[in-house]
Each structure stands twice: as structure tokens, then as C-alpha cells.
## 1
Amino acid sequence: MSSEASTIARVYVWEWPVRMTHWLIALSLAVCAITGIYIGNPGLMRVMTWPGFTMGMTKVVHYYGAIVFTLTVLSRMAWMFLGNNYSRWDKFIPVHAKRWRALVPTIRFYLFRLRKPPGFVGHNPAAGLAYTLVFLLYGVMIITGIAMYSASAAAAAPLKPFTFLIPLVGGLQTARWIHHVVMWLLIGFAVHHVYSAWLMSHVEGNGTMESIVSGFKFVPKEDLVYSGYRFIDRNDVPDATLRKEISHAATHPAAYPGTR
């Protein structure tokens, strides 16, 4: 590859709604996890029982955290249809043949079986598919949470009509158990998410960790032209064509959303 091909481009990947919802989901989940553990077993967290911080207040904080979480998840899902190419729904569900083809090699990279990173500017196929499963878990948390809240809500409360969810989730005890298990799955995902983001940022050197604050990544220009190019058949991309498009990407990065 020519030296021109290794030139780095500064690309605006994560728009402000993506960054805002990312941090709001993280914050609201942390609040709900801490208060939820206390609600489930107050004896495990006696340190929180300072004067005035009653079980009732804990539940209020938990409910408000859940409201923020629910509205933020719905907002992020809406942005999958309103946002730029890097945040859209087809970067989560691998409907394109190239993303399916890149799925196994990307997983091999995460398992240290490949030396080169995948070369996707936004979410790579493995990450996108993982986030799809995470959003499904978000949905389970929201549904079971609403079901439990509706059981004790006042008659005039907006969520009282959602008592129909209780039998659908197997009853209140089952809903509590599912809610608890999914919480720990999400905590485990959060740990892995930080690790994988650090790994990609360290190996690719593209500012992955910083991009969720600034919105910008620093990527090789060839990734703008043929996102995921490291996994494609080189016969599909003649060198002359690659060099020409990479040269054009140097002065017109907005014309290459990295989704091909």
C-alpha cells in the first residue's frame, strides 16, 4: 500500500445525540443498578442507610433513573433512523453481505487470532450485533420494570394500565428474577464494553475512547473508501481504483461515509 494510503483522516463519526444517549444510558443504568441492589436486599448495603435515605427514597431515585433510561433508549433507537450512516440501524443488524462476511474475522481479531483490526470506521459487525442483543436486554429491563411498577402504582398513575404485562412476563416474582438477572448481564457487558473499546483504541490508535466525548475518530483514509477493506477479496478492488478513491477521499472525506 502506498504512503498515501496510510494517511490519517479526521472523521466526525458520533453525532451529539449518540454521545449524549450513550452517557445518559450509562449513568441511569448505574443509578438503577445501585438502587436496585439495595431494594432487592437492603441488608447487603447497610452503608446506604444513612439518616433520611429510606427505602421509599431509594425507590423514588430508582424510578426516576428508570424513566431517564427508558426515554434515552427510545431516543437512541429513533436516532437509528434519523442519524448519520455510522449510527443507523443497519450498523447493528448485519443486513449487508459484506458485514456478514466480516463477522467471523472480526471475532477472530477480538480473540487475538488476527493481528489487523477490522477497519470499520463506525461499529464493526461483531460490535453492532452485540449492541443489538444489548438493546434487546434493555427492552426486557423496561418491560419487566413497568410490569412491577404497575402492580403498586396508584389508580390514576400513567403506568397503571400496564398491569396487563404482569401475566405476560410470568407474574411479579418471575419479573423480579428476570429484572435482576438482566441487570447483572448488563453490568458484565459494561465491563467488556470498556475493555473492547480500550483494545480497539490501543491497537488501531484511532481515538476510539476519546470519540465518545469528541465525536471524532482518526482513521486511515482507505477505511473511508472501503470500510472493512481488510476482509474483502483484493481482486474486487483493483489497486488503481483504490489509489484513485483514496486520493479523492483526502480532499472530500464527507463523500465517503465508510459504509460500503
## 2
Amino acid sequence: MNVYSVNLHGFMTGYGFMTGWQEKVAEMDPSHRLMLEGGGLSSIFLRYPLKLVNPLFVGGFYGILISTALLPMGIIFGESSNWIGQSLKLLALTSLLGGFSLGISSIIKRPPIRLENRRRYLFPIPFLGLLILVFEAFFGLGENTSRFGLFLLIVPGPIYVQLSYAPRWRILNRIQNGRGAFDGMVVTIYSDATEDEEVVDREMEEAIGGSLGTVTFDLDDSFSD
């Protein structure tokens, strides 16, 4: 169990916040407790009631973050009205993907995957996407370039929700509702690093080539006009 998990457990216990799923998770072995408490990002969301941090809403929140990052471009290029429409599309898309991830996790019933060791791969992707959009806006590189940049800007959030957050939320929600946390699961935790990596590779391909690859996003060529 890492230091963050110890601090979170101590804080919640000391201040009387150990209710619902927190109490049940605190009674589990260290490996399962670490898996369900999640890393820094998941722990931020899980401070709130589970109904408020449904993967559908977390996906939408990521869409809001993307829209906020695109706001300066809308202001600079005088396309604030187009920015509002694009923001609504992003919100709808990322929320839809969050709900899709929850549905998939309910069918597959697999444990969540902690992505701390893979942040170095996911973290730069949205910044690269934003950089591509900036270059497209200044140099008019074409609509396909805009689509590719927006794709890179969007994809890390759905990957995180698909691989890590949605499966974790599903298990915690079952605990909260008094149902068996791991009922119907063949594997309750990934202990073999090789198997873990294979699952990540396979589901990242599905997330990129499937759920996102089949979505066509109408990006106005507003920033290049």
C-alpha cells in the first residue's frame, strides 16, 4: 500500500468519513484496497458520492476540461460562438464514451488497472493534440489535421475511464449497494505484470480503434478561416 493510500485511509478514519464502501474496502487485503482506492486522480473523484462521480459524469468532466483548453483559441481567432457549439459536442462525446465504458465493464466484469506506470505515455498526448491544433490554426494545415489533433486531445480521458475508472466505480457501487464486490469475476485483481500489460494493450487498441475510431466528430474549420 502506498503512502497516499495510508494517508487517505487515516484521514477518512480520523474524521469519521468511513461510511459505505470505504468501510468495506478498508477491511480488504492491501492489494485489493490499493486497487479500489485508486491513484491520485481516481482518489480525487472518489471523495464525492458515487452517484455524482459516475463514469458518465467523469467523462463529461473531461470534455469540459478539453473545452476550457480550447477557449483561448476561440477567443484569439474570434470564434467564441463556434467554441460553444464545439464544447457541447465534446461534452456529449466524452459523456457518451464514459457511459459506454461503464457498460463494457459491467459486461466483461474485469478488475481495474492502475495506470501510474503508464502516465509517461498518456500524459503528453493531449498536449501534442493541442499543439497540432495551434499549428493548424496558424498555418491552415487542413481539416484532417484538426481532426487528428482533436483526437489526440480527447483520447487519454476515455482510455483512463475505460481501463481504470469505470471498472473501479462498478465494483465500489456494488459494495455501496450491499452486493458482492467481485461476484461474477473470474479475476479480482491483476497480479501478473505480463497479463496486466496484455490487457492494457488490447483494451487501448479497442478504445482507440473501436469506440473512438467509429465516432465521427464534425470539427468546424473555424480556427483556420
